[in-house]
Amino acid sequence: MTAVLNLEYKDWNPELSTQDQLVAAEALEAGSILFLPELSFKFDPTELPLLEMAPTSSKNIGFNAQKQRVSGIDCAEKETKALEAMMTRYTEEAKKLVLSLFPKYEAMQTGLTSLRTVEAEGRKAASFRKDDTRLHIDAFPSRPTGSRRLLRVFCNINQTDAPRVWQAGESFENVAMKFLPKAQQYSTLLATLRNVVGITKTFQTHYDSIMLKLHHLMKADMEYQRDVSKRECSFPPGSVWIVFSDQVSHAVVSGKQMMEQTFYLPVDSMYHPDTSPLHVLERLTGKHLV
Ligand SMILES: O=C(O)CCC(=O)C(=O)O
Ligand SMILES: [Fe+2]
User: Fold this and answer.
1) Pairing between strand 164-168 and 250-254?
2) Secondary structure of the chain in the HEC alphabet?
3) Separation between Cα atoms, residue 122 and residue 129, nearest integer Å
4) Number of the ligand 1 atom closest to the C-alpha atom of 154
5) Quick one: how far is CA 277 from the chain centroid?
6) If you measure from the C-alpha of residue 262 to the centroid of ligand 2, how many angstroms do you get, rounded to a whole number?
7) Is residue 290 situated within a structural domain?
8) Is 215 a pocket residue for ligand 1 (Cβ < 6 Å)?
9) Quick check: CB of 252 below 6 Å from ligand 1?
10) Is the entire prediction scored with pTM above 0.85?
11) Based on the structure, what is the number of domains in the chain?
12) Nearest residue to 90 via CA among 82, 125, 281, 45
């Protein structure tokens, strides 16, 4: 089952010894959640109303740091600017944190930043596949990673004392062994077509295809959801947790305001690439998947 490593850092840019870095990297890459109970994201009082704004349709107010563009919200210019500034700050803090912990991840690319402001418990999902209250590993239909890892930095920014509660399930290897038999079918031609017509933003590799199927198969299997061994994790306001969400089986139970930063990490920038979902799946299938 998923382990949790507590790190008592209070700063987004902590000075760490090589030994501290290796211990954290070892745990993260083995599929643990790194939990920083003392690390909080600071707001200017003028920003607090932004945390009550509702996204238009999806669960997220999104921010693309490269394009400096906010999405998923309908608001005035002044608020958009304030959101951009706040989300940029979160991106910068998250990047500093990851690179202080894992200097070897220098080649990572910055993905989307999200702000969630809607209570997760009881939130209606458009379909079971979008229901994050079911255990899953992350794989996104329109954004294949190729083979890159999904590294995400979450922060509970609730303005009340309610924690964000997650469930964390079994190891990636166990997930893969259970669902892989139904997840292997793949057509390069179809993947090319999907990319050409814009269903996917980039080409979906065989690896991406398996990951997306694992995501769907896990969420569709209610017996699995009920019976698989899992633990509950409670992340209080003013805490941060870091996970490889393509590896750690997770589900949200409850919680309101949260920020999150996604990074994409090339597998060969890892300390131990052989622990990556790509390598696990290649071992299990006996095939090259990218
Ligand atoms: O909202 C959360 O706490 C996590 C939901 C989730 O599974 C995700 O963002 O991938
Ligand atoms: Fe997820």
Assistant:
1) antiparallel
2) CCCEEECCCCCCCCCCCHHHHHHHHHHHHCCCEEEECCCCCCCCHHHHHHHHCCCCCCCCEEEECCCCEEECCCCCHHHHHHHHHHHHHHHHHHHHHHHHHCHHHHHCEEEEEEEECCCCCCCCCCCHHHCCCCCECCCCCCCCCCCCEEEEEEEECCCCCCCEEEEECCCHHHHHHHHHHHCCCCCHHHHHHHHHCCCCCCCCCHHHHHHHHHHHHHHHCHHHHHHCCCEEEEECCCEEEEEECCCCCEEEEECCCEEEEEEEECHHHCCCHHHCHHHHHHHHHCCCCC
3) 15
4) 3
5) 14
6) 11
7) no
8) no
9) yes
10) yes
11) 1
12) 82
Which of 136, 88, 145 shows the shortest CA–CA distance to 252? 136
The finding on whether 138 has its CB within 6 A of some atom of ligand 1 is yes
**Based on the number of CB atoms within 10 Å of its own CB, is 36 exposed (0-12), middle (13-18) or buried (19 or more)?**
buried
Look up the CATH number of the domain holding residue 229: 2.60.120
Residue type, 229: S
Any idea of the CA torsion for 17, 22, 28, 29, to the nearest 10 degrees? 150
Reported as a single tens digit per residue, the pLDDT across 51-94 is 999 899 778 899 999 999 999 999 989 999 999 999 999 999 99
Top-confidence residue, 144 or 125: 144
Domain that holds residue 169: 4-285
List the residue whose alpha carbon is closest to atom 3 of ligand 1: 252
pLDDT in tens, 117-134: 999 998 888 899 999 999
Strands 164-168 and 149-156: unpaired
* Band (38; pLDDT cuts 50, 70, 90): very high
Locus of tokens 């760490």: 16
